[in-house]
Amino acid sequence: MCPCHGSARWGCHVCTNRFHLDHTRHIAEPKSDEWYFDVAKSVYRTDIYAIAAQELISEGLMSAGEFPDFETETGFKPEQTEFLDGVSYGGSKPNGYLQKLAIGLKEEVL
């Protein structure tokens, strides 16, 4: 499970999944950032996660502090720069991240 609140931070997985799908040519043509966000949202279902979290809180099994603030949560972690290759990684810009790499589908960015 992602250390960034699992499904609440779906965006932290967008770039990683996009990179692997592109690198292995499972996606043969360019897609917009929004396309990746829509796919990730359909998989991670933050609406279900929020409902389950609220039920756990209302039943007293967990506290609100153990979950993100669902009113302000964007789904993205801040851009990270501490990787070995020195390439900054931001889930909110999957195509921008891929443009920084030497490999991948770069013919067109939508």
What is the compact description of this entry?
Helices cover 37% and strands 0% of the residues. It is an all-alpha fold and 110 residues long.
Describe the structure.
With 110 residues, the chain is mostly helical. The chain has one domain. The protein has four helices and no strands. The protein has helices spanning 14-23, 33-44, 46-58, 94-99. The longest helix has 13 residues, at 46-58. It is elongated. The protein starts with 13 loop residues before the first helix and ends in an 11-residue tail after the last helix.
Task: Note the gap between the termini.
Answer: 30 Å
Shape: elongated
Q: Quote the beta fraction.
A: under 5%
The helix/strand order is: HHHH
Uncertain segments are: 1-7
Mean pLDDT: 76
> From the alpha-carbon coordinates, what is the Rg to the nearest angstrom?
16 Å
Overall tally of structural domains: 1
How helix-rich are the residues, as a percent range? Answer: 25-40%
Q: Let me know the largest β-sheet.
A: none
According to DSSP, the number of beta strands is 0
| Individual helix count | 4
**Which structural class matches the secondary elements?**
mainly alpha
